[in-house]
Design a protein that fits this description.
By secondary structure, the chain is of the alpha+beta class. It has 2 domains: 4-196, Bira Bifunctional Protein, Domain 2 (BirA Bifunctional Protein, domain 2), CATH 3.30.930; 204-245, SH3 type barrels, CATH 2.30.30. Helices cover 27% and strands 33% of the residues. A 7-stranded mixed sheet has the order 1-2-3-7-6-5-4, sandwiched between helices. Strands 11-10-9-8-12 form a 5-stranded antiparallel sheet, with no helix packed on it. Helix 2 (71-89) packs across helix 4. It is globular. It starts with a strand and ends with a strand. Bound molecules: biotin (BTN). GO terms for molecular function: biotin--[biotin carboxyl-carrier protein] ligase activity. Biotin binds at residues 37, 41-43, 109.
Length: 247
């Protein structure tokens, strides 16, 4: 799958570079990696801290032949690939997936995924899968307000990791899952995701059509939506939301 790796010292965001390349017809499998990002971005318009040489900041150009509605399956696939990769290089850390796509250790975030897609006539034109992994960040790299909710593999393991190994491990897992997904569909990704998830069977606040409600996620449906049960007994698919722990 990986056709070209574009290495940069400092960029605003690897997402921007990858979008530009994709617009210029870059092949599926073009991977942009930077040592530092000056405007790394996360979901919901949040800032993503990306200090020099401390993490893996990368964006992958994908051109899946899929209808627009199933783009979220790619997010879940990416989370599974990343979780498996990090469990391998950072064993014995117990890394889990918080729906839809954050990776956590002991409730603290170590990695985030940002999928940005562009469409043409209801088909995906291309997708940029952005991946941020806090590999070797130290406590002083985090602003005070993030110290209780974010961590790095180094802080959890007590030793630094080789970032090239982390990237290689991700590429191996992603290639395997993406190839199998295109051949066999979403079913096995769904089972892998459910097994690695730390979001199931615990009540949490979920954004539904009726506003924020406390529900208990029980799994994924075949499209990739989160199935949650609510106090009135209804089970509803949730497509996108901010989740918060139940008060
Ligand atoms: C999130 O958890 O909100 C998603 C974070 C995604 C961060 C990565 S780092 C590489 C790529 N470039 C960006 O600007 N963002 C993504």
């Amino acid at each position: 799958l990986i056709k070209a790796i574009k290495l940069h010292d400092s960029v605003d965001s690897t997402q921007n570079i990858a979008h530009r390349l994709a617009e210029d017809d870059a092949l599926e499998g073009t991977l942009v990696i930077a040592e530092q990002q000056t405007s790394g971005r996360g979901r919901m318009g949040r800032k993503w801290i990306s200090p020099t040489g401390k993490g893996v900041w990368m964006s992958l150009v994908l051109r899946p032949k899929l209808p627009l509605q199933v783009a979220s399956q790619l997010t879940l696939l990416t989370a599974v690939a990343l979780c498996r990769a990090l469990r391998t290089v950072a064993a014995p850390l117990e890394i889990g997936i918080k729906w839809p796509n954050d990776l956590l250790i002991n409730g603290k975030k170590i990695s985030g995924i940002l999928l940005e897609s562009t469409a043409e006539e209801e088909r995906l034109k291309y997708v940029i899968a952005g991946i941020g992994i806090s590999v070797n960040l130290e406590e002083s790299d985090y602003p005070q307000e993030l110290r209780d909710i974010a961590t790095s593999l180094r802080l959890e393991l007590g030793r630094p990791l080789d970032r090239a190994e982390v990237i290689a491990s991700f590429i191996r897992e992603f290639e395997q899952l993406y190839t199998a997904y295109q051949k066999d569909g979403f079913g096995f990704i769904r089972s892998l995701w459910e097994a690695l998830s730390v979001s199931l069977h615990k009540p949490m606040q979920l954004k539904t059509a009726n506003g924020m409600q406390i529900g208990t996620p029980i799994g994924l449906d075949e499209s990739g939506a989160l199935l949650a049960t609510f106090e009135n007994g209804a089970t509803i698919p949730i497509f996108s939301a901010e989740t918060l722990p139940a008060p």
